[in-house]
Amino acid sequence: MNRATVLFAAGLATLLLSGPAIAADRPGSSATTPSTAPAEKPGVMAIPHNVTGSVVSVDTRSNSVSIRDTKGKELTLVADTDTAAEIGRLKPGDQVKATYKKSHDQLVMTKISDTTAERRSSEGTSEEKSPYKTSNEKATGGEPKPPRPAER
Fold it and tell me: Distance between CA 110 and CA 121 in Å, rounded?
């Protein structure tokens, strides 16, 4: 029994002392060195979040964008492999809508759209005539219907 107690104590001490060594970061891991590659795509089960705001800064080296949302909170999003090419066209002051997921202690942007460019294009087309017929035009010829006589 005395021998079993000594072996048990030695095994327990070995486990307790090796725990911190196993949990320590390996040298060269992404936590200690900045990564220039796009972020890894988040898992399918990660919950998507949306943010609408203005671009504060764009860093193409680290594939990240800082966005100030409508409430004044600033978020730094790292682009995934699909959206990394899109951040090159952004500049500070652009209005954007982005979708991101939390993955590996960072916010990974999965989609971004420039609402400033969309607004500019819609302003140019608002003066054009709508292709849809008004309610008083016939479906075939596009000529207005004659007014109905008033009932007495």
Answer: 24
